[in-house]
Amino acid sequence: MAGFGQVRYFSSSVARPVAKLIKPPIQVYGVEGRYATALFSAASKQKNLDQVEQDLGRVASLIKDPKMSSIVMNPHVKRSVKQAAFSDALGKAKVSAITINLINVLAENGRLTLTPDVIGAFSKMMSAHRGEVTCSVTTAQPLDDANLTELKVALNGFLAKGETIKLETKCDPAILGGMIVSIGDKYVDMSTKTKVQKLTKLIRDT
Questions:
Q1: C-alpha distances in angstroms, 89 versus 19, 75, 94?
Q2: Strand ranges of the sheet holding 179-183, from the earlier edge strand across to the other edge
Q3: Cα separation of 55 and 64, whole Å?
Q4: Whole-number Å distance between alpha carbons of 173 and 139
Q5: pTM of the predicted model as reported, rounded to 2 decimal places
Q6: How far is Cα 41 from Cα 93, in angstroms, rounded to an integer?
Q7: What's 110's DSSP letter?
Q8: With the C-alpha atoms ordered 104, 34, 24, 114, is the resulting torsion angle positive or negative?
Q9: In this structure, what DSSP letter does residue 156 have?
């Protein structure tokens, strides 16, 4: 619980006066969700959500750099060394004080390796904040433009007023055909592979 206490400290220390935590539009569970929630609250209070989202894009790019990654993601490197390296890079990237505060708290708690997960959690919150509904569609072969347009029209039927689709398409030849659709809390498996498995089970059980 010490880590969570630090998250609560972070959320209140970057916004004065101390006010009630502003909850994001969706809840993301896990340690990364706690840090992202604290960040969302702090950025909301300072009306700085868009800036922080841009900052985290820069942070994500920094982490992908092999030299930086070899320091930040290495469990054998001291926390102070990681924090110093990251702080120097963030200073050059000119990110906001809220974002620097987040990285410092992650460093102090030995949680810098969670940075990509925290960024991912914050991104989900921002998508929900904008009314975006993430939809993941997996097909055996890439969809052509006509099928993609038809699919988007069908998916829009699941949306509430003011919501928009954020479509992510993936290819997985293992499903053989059909598609697997995940939208919000709904999951539909219409893959050929699953149909074959159900048919095989039916034949075995008869």
A1: 31, 19, 9
A2: 164-171, 132-139, 179-183, 186-189
A3: 15
A4: 7
A5: 0.67
A6: 23
A7: T
A8: positive
A9: G
